[in-house]
Design a protein that fits this description.
alpha+beta, three-stranded antiparallel sheet, 35% strand
């Protein structure tokens, strides 16, 4: 496993639409493994492939006991409303108050290309929505009220 460099705004890759994954195999599994390693090294709870300069529809989530990857994810339905102040590894020191769905249904593929559907709620739903936004070139600063975090 390799820790990759996270890119920072205003890098243009963060604004690109990611392409669907069409080839499943060792390279994708290595990418996902490296993404988990990178997310952990940067103390993140989610990471999308564009944040490491890869414009493919791949994201990883790691929160408490939940660790999973989504390939070509699509939100098929949502319910409820949640407000949360979000940060982003690609925008260090920036916090944004964002309104998102409390619960989402996601259709995606796993690293072997097998289709599945899953329901996510609470913080995990927020993380998934945040990372799917990255796959579309959307940043948290596009969505809510921004403030700078001042380290004391």
């Amino acid at each position: 496993m390799t820790v990759l460099d996270v890119i920072f705004y205003p890098n243009d890759v963060l604004r690109a639409n990611s392409e669907p994954v069409t080839v499943f195999g060792y390279a994708l599994k290595k990418l996902i493994s490296d993404m988990f390693e990178t997310m952990d090294a940067y103390d993140g709870i989610g990471l999308a492939a564009p944040q490491i300069s890869v414009t493919k529809q791949v994201l990883v989530v790691g929160h408490k006991s939940q660790r999973f990857a989504l390939v070509n994810p699509e939100i098929t339905s949502f319910s409820g409303v949640s407000h949360m102040e979000e940060g982003c590894l690609s925008l260090p020191g920036v916090l944004v108050d964002i309104e998102r769905a409390e619960s989402i249904v996601v259709r995606a593929k796993d690293s072997d290309g097998v289709d599945f559907e899953m329901v996510y709620s609470g913080l995990v739903a927020t993380i998934v929505q945040h990372e799917i936004d990255h796959l579309k070139g959307v940043l948290i600063t596009d969505l809510g009220t921004t403030r700078l975090q001042i380290d004391e």
